[in-house]
């Protein structure tokens, strides 16, 4: 991807995410979120097209297509699930945050927040499908989204003269833009007692499962050593 085209794409993605942060729930906000979401994989693939990791995937076309089909299927399922039961969206974000998926390509390994990305994508599409959202913020709470939007725009402007534009683009595509979309989705909810308790239950259940699995793996490893 040419530097000019990559720069334009970065500004559009960041600008769309920033607009979604400050706009009220509406179809134009949903459209901005979809644009930002759609540009994330485009920017990453364009920036890394000649890298060893992407080249390895391109050399194994069946694997590349299979990953894409699985991702689309999961996002479609999550979109339908969130439309049927909207409360599962914030709980899904809370549940997905701790997990990274290791991807092996080109002799390298990258631990990506793929579960979180899929949940965010499903949430964005569910919100776009309904064309509306909910927002009940105080005057003070309205300031934070504007500050975050300003930070996003400032980061995009600074990336223009960065010594490592590729790294700046990756930071925006992997972190800043998706996290901004997640913030928009979560900020639409009233975090009352019910939602907080449900989130605590999700975190507690994950902690129990992970600690139990860790203990089992530790015992298994000790047994093998003996």
Describe this entry's structure for a reader:
The model has no long low-confidence stretch (mean pLDDT 85). The chain contains 9 helices and 2 strands, in the order H-H-H-H-H-E-E-H-H-H-H. It has a two-stranded antiparallel sheet. Helix 1 (3-22) packs parallel to helix 8 and helix 2 runs antiparallel to helix 8. By secondary structure, the chain is mainly alpha-helical. It folds into 2 domains: 3-190, no CATH class; 192-226. The relative contact order is 0.15. It is globular and about 60 Å long. The chain has helices at residues 3-22, 27-48, 52-59, 61-84, 88-96, 114-130, 143-159, 165-187, 193-225; strands at 101-105, 108-112. Helix content is 77%, strand content 4%.
Query: How many structurally independent domains?
Result: 2
Percent range for β-strand residues: under 5%
Q: What ranges have pLDDT less than 50 throughout 5 or more consecutive residues?
A: none
Number of strands: 2
Strand order of the largest sheet: 1-2
Number of distinct helices: 9
> Which value, in Å, is the CA radius of gyration?
19 Å
Which range best describes the helical content: under 10%, 10-25%, 25-40%, 40-55%, 55-70% or over 70%?
Answer: over 70%
Please report the distance between the alpha carbons of the first and last residues. 54 Å
Mean pLDDT: 85
What's the shape?
Answer: globular
- The secondary structure category is mainly alpha
Question: How do the helices and strands follow one another from N- to C-terminus?
Answer: HHHHHEEHHHH
For the biggest sheet, the summary is:
2 strands, antiparallel
């Amino acid at each position: 991807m040419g530097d000019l085209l990559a720069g334009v794409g970065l500004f559009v993605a960041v600008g769309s995410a920033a607009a979604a942060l400050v706009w009220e729930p509406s179809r134009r906000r949903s459209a901005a979120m979809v644009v930002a979401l759609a540009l994330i994989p485009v920017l990453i693939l364009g920036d890394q097209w000649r890298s060893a990791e992407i080249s390895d995937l391109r050399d194994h076309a069946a694997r590349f297509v299979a990953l894409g089909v699985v991702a689309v299927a999961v996002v479609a399922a999550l979109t339908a699930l969130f439309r049927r039961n909207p409360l599962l969206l914030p709980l899904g974000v809370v549940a997905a945050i701790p997990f990274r998926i290791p991807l092996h390509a080109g002799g390298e390994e990258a631990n990506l927040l793929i579960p979180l990305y899929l949940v965010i994508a499903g949430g964005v599409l569910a919100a776009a499908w309904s064309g509306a959202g909910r927002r009940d913020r105080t005057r003070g709470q309205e300031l934070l989204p504007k500050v975050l939007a300003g930070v996003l725009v400032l980061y995009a402007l600074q990336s223009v003269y960065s010594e490592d534009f590729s790294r700046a683009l990756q930071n925006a595509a992997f972190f800043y833009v998706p996290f901004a979309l997640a913030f928009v989705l979560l900020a639409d909810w009233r975090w009352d007692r019910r939602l907080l308790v449900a989130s605590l239950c999700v975190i507690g259940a994950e902690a129990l499962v992970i600690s139990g699995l860790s203990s089992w793996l530790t015992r298994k490893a000790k047994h093998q050593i003996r």
